[in-house]
């Protein structure tokens, strides 16, 4: 592509509400332009990148045996009433009335439409399994759209839906899709992790999120240094320490801690490490209070706590009045030693392995030192109730955990029979009996991937595209081409030669001075830059630089063509 | 593609409301499935064809120098208010309110959005000309959606918008697009004509429609046997006859025609040809009646008549009471001889060339015979006011006209400054002065093309795809493969060999009996069919048949591979 014939319009200033790097860079490069809140036009530059993502997603879905179709964006209310989601989906569902006052929505997802399609098309088990996918525009009426296309209202998604006679068959297809997703994100050149996800309200069984690693990610994920293990921090299991608890060696002693309440304050005051302290939290149980004990350097994981049999399905802190009434002590001085018998004491696996610990004195202004489980403090039950931290052993037994932040760009679910049952989507099995189909669903946020890739790959000068996503692989920058026929001709010749090899090359023939030209090429993130200059040509070379390196290298024509063939 | 891994679901019965062939065949083949009125899912089979159209459109737009982008489907009301179209567009505009009660529409077209994009992106004449296009989903809330995807509410369109400093530059791009459209429809393998169109309410200057020829088309078009000339019948000029009017040879004579009113009745009764009769129609002029005279075998063209200076911009028939009051005669007996002087007589070019004609007697129950212009009947003005008919001379002087029906699949317009002025889209010219940009717009109904192609290419057995649009080029049909290993292996081998040559091949491995298998393959319109059978293999051949031929031909492997390489 000759840049003079391509509409490129980079800008210097971006609105203050562009809070994250990808949003700022997509606006500065002109990849996107805002039309309305959460609604963006993809400029020619932006669309080139978006199309590359689309193509890779499509190729790998096809290779995995999924079949592409295209469902409408406008969906009738009646289908959504069959699953109860017309009401349950909430405010994100953009509801529409047509000129005849019939009710529709702009599809935020397509479970209803595909299940309707499937119940009409699929009559026999012989037609199964089948996996339909589409790459299509969706709309979710986010109450606070932000971060550009990262959380837009109108966005491009790949959604796939598979149909099966049995749960086993669904399991197999789930694995096929899991592997295909791995290939997609690998081919895109992104650092990512497939993490076990809490299926939450969507229902069904297995579920994995595909997370692109980036410091600005909204999700914290834990992954193993030595294996494929990865999970949302909320879901990652914290194993018991490998070393068993030591025998008590200290005597229990009450110490005055008149103003020290937090672990940091207490441990500093008493000269102990936080991990030798026990933190006790009182929460509401089915009837009465429940004590949760974790090590001073650990945090309660509320998702895990909510699942404890002693709790009513959620973890709610007791209020100060209730704590004082039941224990006679103010929060900050509560501990497991001498707690009323009515309060179950749930001790985290790591906390249970500590001997000679510090804990609250159950008397205002005091703590205990030299406390020990069993001898001084009751354990009702040991359980995994804390958040994992870096350095924890990986739950699969291989390596230790690291914590990183991620951006969710894909999600695979086993839906089971949820939608098929609600919409009566059945096929006849080999005995001629109608059976509800098993379903899987598999989403990829195509437009979001573009933003996530930038979050992961940028520097002060701009975007650093992974090659498979770059709008062009190589940029040719001629210096003073207007004044120098040789520079002009050599740049043209190189452009033609590389293009003829099927390489996507951008020739910057806008006639800009080197500074602004290089700034644009770096900003839009072209992986390889070749400068054609009078001085270089005199030496028979071009100046070559990779986007992620800081040094130029002189390279002659032959070597260049060899590198890019 | 192995058909067993592709979801194909043909059906026997289609709803009675599928009135036209393409609608019926798209439902029978399963290419589309209705989700709601005018809203369709494109099945895997349908999408394969739709994608082929998209790809050809995209390639030719790129080749013509247009630059692809992607605008949102949801557009804010404010932009539509700037052009006044929020109200003027009418009921087809699907209006939407989001959760914050802000008003939007689902874009039926993108002039507002692209003009807004352009006024923000384009600052200088140096950025011009530029032509932006997209292939994108649109919604028009048709009051009576029908004919399947031919007149759907949600549909896929390619829309392009070009921006220019001058009208000359717009003219040049218009020609570039006109040529690109010609290449697109030629590459798609369709019979089409580019016809001059009435720009109607859309405004601007030049405008051409691209019409796919098909008997079921809604538009009648006239085109030359010997040149590129083509125009909507409403627009085609009817030249004066090449031969001048003969001198009068008969005497004027009133004859009784007691019950004969129509041209057919009168000409049969008097033994004259319809072309020797003059038909006179009275319409409402600015004040009083105006007579329009055409030959008995011709029809008034209301579009042309409406443009006459004597008429108020529309052609409205006078009612019977008014005709009787002014002329003393009932309709059916009106003629140009002896009409009151207050009535201007506008005579069509062909009518003006007739001598010794029959016309109404301006007295109930009578006609004149042997009437002649000037001698017996006044001519206020000669004008082109009739519809062209087959055999008329082509207005460009080359050949004669033929009339065919067409389906509009593309439209190119010169919008001029209409939108740019309303939305204040200016650039600085080389003198630093702000100038309103000139715009062109260029649409192609991508999903409609699929239906139009079927209207043009089908028979009783199903669709007969032009090769460039076919879902696959070749189908391989093995007979009794389950029972015959050699058939199975040879079919597989042929499938692999042809696929390896980059040819799109469908292997029908569903295990159907020959009858249903052939019926499906013909129905879905695969251009080439190769049957692999025990008998054929014994003779060292396959049975080959083209979709549009009725005979099989024995062909050996070598010849086959040579034909498709």
UniProtKB/TrEMBL annotation, chains A, B:
The gene is proS. Its EC number is 6.1.1.15. Belongs to the class-II aminoacyl-tRNA synthetase family. ProS type 1 subfamily. This is Proline--tRNA ligase. PANTHER family: MITOCHONDRIAL RIBOSOME PROTEIN L39/PROLYL-TRNA LIGASE FAMILY MEMBER (PTHR42753), PROLINE--TRNA LIGASE (PTHR42753:SF2). Residues 38-466 form the Aminoacyl-transfer RNA synthetases class-II family profile domain. It comes from the Bacteria. Keywords: Aminoacyl-tRNA synthetase, ATP-binding, Cytoplasm, Ligase, Nucleotide-binding, Protein biosynthesis. Pfam families: HGTP_anticodon, tRNA-synt_2b, tRNA_edit. InterPro entries: aa-tRNA-synt_IIb, aa-tRNA-synth_II, aa-tRNA-synth_II/BPL/LPL, Anticodon-bd, Anticodon-bd_dom_sf, Pro-tRNA-ligase_IIa, Pro-tRNA-synth_IIa_bac-type, Pro-tRNA-Synthase_IIa_type1. The keyword Ion transport does not apply. Catalyzes the attachment of proline to tRNA(Pro) in a two-step reaction: proline is first activated by ATP to form Pro-AMP and then transferred to the acceptor end of tRNA(Pro). As ProRS can inadvertently accommodate and process non-cognate amino acids such as alanine and cysteine, to avoid such errors it has two additional distinct editing activities against alanine. One activity is designated as 'pretransfer' editing and involves the tRNA(Pro)-independent hydrolysis of activated Ala-AMP. Consists of three domains: the N-terminal catalytic domain, the editing domain and the C-terminal anticodon-binding domain. Homodimer.
């Amino acid at each position: 592509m000759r840049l003079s014939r391509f509409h490129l319009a980079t800008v210097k200033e971006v609105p203050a509400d562009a809070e994250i790097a990808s949003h700022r860079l997509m606006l500065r490069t002109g990849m996107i332009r805002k039309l309305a809140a959460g609604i963006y036009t993809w400029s020619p530059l932006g669309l080139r990148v978006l199309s590359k993502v689309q193509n890779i997603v499509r190729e790998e879905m096809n290779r995995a045996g999924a079949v592409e179709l295209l469902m409408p964006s406008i969906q009738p209310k009646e289908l959504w009433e069959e699953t109860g989601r017309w009401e349950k989906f909430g405010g994100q569902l953009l509801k529409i009335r047509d000129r005849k006052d019939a009710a529709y929505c702009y599809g935020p997802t397509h479970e209803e439409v595909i299940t309707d399609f499937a119940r009409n098309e699929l009559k026999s088990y012989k037609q199964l399994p089948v996996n339909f996918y589409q790459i299509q525009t969706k709309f979710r009426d986010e109450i606070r759209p932000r971060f550009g296309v990262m959380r837009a209202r109108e966005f491009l998604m790949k959604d796939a839906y598979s149909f099966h006679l049995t749960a086993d068959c669904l399991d197999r297809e789930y694995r096929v899709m899991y592997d295909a997703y791995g290939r997609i994100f690998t081919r895109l050149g992104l650092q990512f992790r497939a993490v076990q996800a809490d299926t939450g309200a969507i229902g069904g069984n297995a579920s994995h999120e595909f997370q692109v690693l980036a410091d600005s990610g909204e999700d914290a994920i834990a992954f193993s240094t030595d294996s494929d293990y990865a999970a949302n921090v909320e879901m990652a299991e914290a194993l018991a320490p490998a070393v068993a608890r030591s025998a008590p060696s200290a005597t229990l002693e009450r110490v005055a801690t008149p103003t020290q309440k937090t672990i940091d304050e207490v441990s500093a005051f008493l000269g102990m490490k936080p991990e030798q302290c026990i933190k006790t939290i009182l929460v509401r149980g089915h009837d009465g209070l429940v004590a949760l004990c974790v090590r001073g350097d650990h945090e309660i994981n509320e998702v895990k706590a909510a699942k404890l049999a002693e709790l009513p399905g959620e973890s709610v802190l007791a209020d100060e009045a209730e704590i004082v009434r039941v224990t006679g002590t103010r929060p900050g001085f509560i501990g497991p030693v001498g707690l009323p018998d009515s309060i179950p004491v749930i001790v985290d696996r790591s906390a249970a392995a500590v001997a000679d610990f510090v804990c609250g004195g159950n008397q205002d202004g005091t703590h205990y030192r030299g406390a020990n489980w069993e001898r001084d403090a009751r354990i009702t039950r040991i359980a995994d109730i804390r958040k994992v931290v870096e350095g924890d052993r990986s739950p699969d037994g291989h390596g230790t955990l690291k914590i990183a932040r991620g951006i969710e760009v894909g999600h695979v679910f086993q839906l089971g029979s949820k939608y098929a049952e609600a919409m009566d989507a059945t096929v006849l099995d080999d005995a001629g009996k109608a059976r509800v189909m098993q379903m899987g669903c598999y989403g990829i946020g195509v437009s979001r991937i573009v933003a996530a890739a930038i979050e992961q790959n940028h520097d002060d000068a701009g975007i650093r595209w992974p090659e498979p996503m770059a709008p062009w692989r190589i940029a040719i920058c001629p210096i003073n081409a207007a004044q120098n026929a040789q520079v002009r001709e050599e740049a043209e010749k190189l452009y033609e030669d590389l293009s003829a090899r099927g390489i996507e090359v951008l020739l910057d023939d806008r006639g800009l001075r080197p500074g602004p030209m290089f700034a644009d090429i770096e900003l839009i993130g072209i992986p390889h830059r070749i400068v054609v200059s009078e001085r270089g040509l005199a030496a028979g070379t071009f100046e070559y630089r990779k986007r992620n390196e800081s040094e130029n290298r002189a390279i002659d024509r032959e070597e260049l063509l060899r590198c890019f063939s």
